[in-house]
Write a structure and sequence with these properties.
The protein has a two-stranded antiparallel sheet. Strands 3-4 form a two-stranded antiparallel ribbon. The chain is mainly α and 195 residues long. Helix 2 packs across helix 3 and helix 5 packs antiparallel against helix 6.
Amino acid sequence: MSWTDERVELLKKLWGEGQSASQIAKELGGVTRNAVIGKVHRLGLSNRSSGGAKADAKPKAEAKPKAPPKPKAPPKPKAAEQQPKPDLKTEPAVAPKTGNSLRKAIIPAGQPLPPQPSANEISPEALAKVNEVEKTAKKLGLMELTERTCKWPVGDPATPDFWFCGLPVQAGKPYCEAHVGVAFQPMSARRDRKR
């Protein structure tokens, strides 16, 4: 089927009257709805103007009903409404202190440091071993860590002199032998500490 001048004029007239592409295809005969839509767009008639000239837009009247819109998910409650924020001053992260370096979980900048355990909670032998190991540590950055390197943090993460131990790990643990001795204490030592 070819678009003759008469068929194009009839298309413009019917489109301007607000008929759907399906109705126009039936009226013209020998064309599909998609062919009508394509011709309408090539002619620049997509705004439903009357008489072929672009004028005021008329409401669309489609013969084929459109699919209903997808239901929107109910809005999720804000995080603040779900649960109260913990007070970092009353619930600090606790980490062991070894030697002169501070061990702690990452705490947002400007927050107070958590209370540190006293030196008598960790055996003097373990502390001495950690101090010696940290002198020979590889001092790796976060992106340099692998599954075979000790991930014990040393220093304040908010400062440029923060690093990870980096020595070979003990089998099945994330830390080297010295840091395992500090991080994983026997149950009896932990019970004695609470008394």
